[in-house]
Amino acid sequence: MNSENFVSSLREFLNHSPTPFHAVRSMQARLDEAGFEALDERQVWQLEPNQGYYVIRNGSSIVAFRTGAGSAVDKGVRMVGAHTDSPCLKLKPQPDIHRHGAYQWGAEVYGGALLNPWFDRDLSLAGRVVYLDNNDITGKALIDFRRPVATVPSLAIHLDREANNARSINAQKDLPAVVLLPGEGEKKSVKAVLLAELERVNPELAAKDVLDFEMSLYDSQPAAIVGLEGDLLASARLDNLLSCYVGLRALLDMEQGQAALLVCNDHEEVGSMSAEGAQGPLLTSILRRWLGDGDYHRAMAGSMMVSADNAHAIHPNFADRHDENHGPRINQGPVIKVNNNQRYATNSVTSAFYRRLSGSLGLPCQTFVVRSDMACGSTIGPLTAANLGIKTLDIGVPQWGMHSIRETAGVKDCVNLYLVLKLFFASPELP
Question: Where do transmembrane segments lie in this chain (predicted)?
Answer without folding.
Answer: none
